[in-house]
Sequence to fold (203 residues):
Amino acid sequence: MLLHAYQKELLEAGCDEAGRGCLAGPVFAAAVILPPDFIAGELTDSKKLTHKQRCALRLIIEKEAIAWAVAEVDNYEIDKINILNASFLAMHRAIEKLVVKPAYLSIDGNRFKAYPDIPHACIIKGDGKYLNIAAASILAKTHRDEFMENISFQYPHYQWQQNKGYPTVVHRNAALEYGLSPFHRKTFSITAPQLQLFSKSEC
Fold:
């Protein structure tokens, strides 16, 4: 059973990102402040849930959260500053957009660039331990999936509606055959899946 938050003394926002290991599209991040009595039976790490479960939970989180925000860093920025810094930047942008300012941040992973004037803790596999991080993982994942599904109509060869920009065999073969789209990350190797280089434990 997931705990509500990492600590209880300060108003805490859970933060997570989605799309680090993709060949195309932005990296998305979310920040979520949940009420102390928040209950959602299925809420856990978004990777352990079905698409239908994630979409249902997104509606609940967005309705019942004290505050939530989603932000992105596009592929051009990723190529300029690298995916690790882009992930931090996306989380900073999400935190910035919160209508209620948190006094503490719980971050999924073991690395983070400190946000000004707000203390934080990095928690490895935090999306499977704390509800606020799990909620952030749901929002980051569903908002990013929605973005990739929408742009897949412009570039059907890559089948982004299915792979969401991750380096599947179909996606990589299409990139090699048709070339890169304006949404591809030029600094990522098409033939060497980035998922092997950037694991969640490194975020």
